[in-house]
Write a structure and sequence with these properties.
Elements (H helix, E strand, L loop, with lengths): L2 H12 L35 H4 L3 H93 L6 H14 L10 E2 L2 E2 L2 H25 L1
Antiparallel strand pairs: 1-2
């Protein structure tokens, strides 16, 4: 084969085919992929990192919102702890007040019981005084009646009444003269003694009430 004859073929091979030629134009391979690019990977030579690929403003906003919620939650927990301490302090104060109230009630109850005991003691004392004064009054009234009716002093009962009532009538025996009618006598001084002893009894009882109260 002649090399000169093959040269034009080589020169023609180096030239691009003409559009007017009947030869088919070879299919051109696309430089870019037909599928749409990944929005997470920008165009260019540099690829973003994984964190940069999936970064989204809405997600960042949600994360900031989550951080704010966590901060608010921490503040609420601190406030809850503070309120819990206050509630505990209030419960302690309430317990102290309740114990104080119970102590005051016990003191008041003891005071009332003491007052009741004092009144019972005073009442018993007054009863004893009234009993003694009543016995003395009965004794003096019997003396007045026996003298007025002219009872025989030699009689045991009349002599016992005269002897027993004589010490109580003696301070008033010479206060007034005793009118006599035969064997009868009206001892006005014994009636004065009854009135004086009754007045003294009332004064003693009033004095005891002042002392006990």
């Amino acid at each position: 084969m002649n090399s000169d004859n093959s040269r034009p073929d080589r020169e023609n091979a180096n030239q691009p085919p003409s559009w007017d030629s009947e030869e088919e134009y070879p299919a051109r391979i696309p430089e870019q992929p037909l599928t749409p690019p990944n929005p997470g990977i920008p165009r260019g030579d540099r690829r973003y990192s994984a964190s940069e690929q999936f970064r989204n403003p809405a997600i960042d906003e949600l994360r900031r919102e989550q951080e704010r919620h966590l901060q608010n939650l921490g503040e609420l927990r601190q406030e809850e702890a503070r309120l819990s301490r206050q509630v505990q302090e209030l419960r302690q104060q309430e317990d102290h007040i309740n114990r104080r109230i119970e102590g005051i009630q016990l003191e008041e109850e003891e005071r009332r019981m003491g007052e009741v005991r004092r009144r019972l003691a005073l009442s018993k004392t007054n009863q004893v005084i009234y009993y003694l004064m009543g016995a003395l009054g009965v004794l003096l009234v019997l003396r007045v009646l026996l003298r007025l009716l002219g009872a025989n002093p030699a009689n045991q009962f009349a002599g016992f009444i005269y002897a027993l009532s004589a010490p109580f009538v003696m301070p008033f025996e010479t206060l007034f003269t005793t009118p006599t009618f035969g064997n009868s006598a009206f001892e006005f001084n014994a009636l004065i003694a009854i009135a004086v002893y009754g007045l003294l009894t009332w004064l003693v009882i009033r004095l005891l009430e002042l002392i006990w109260n």
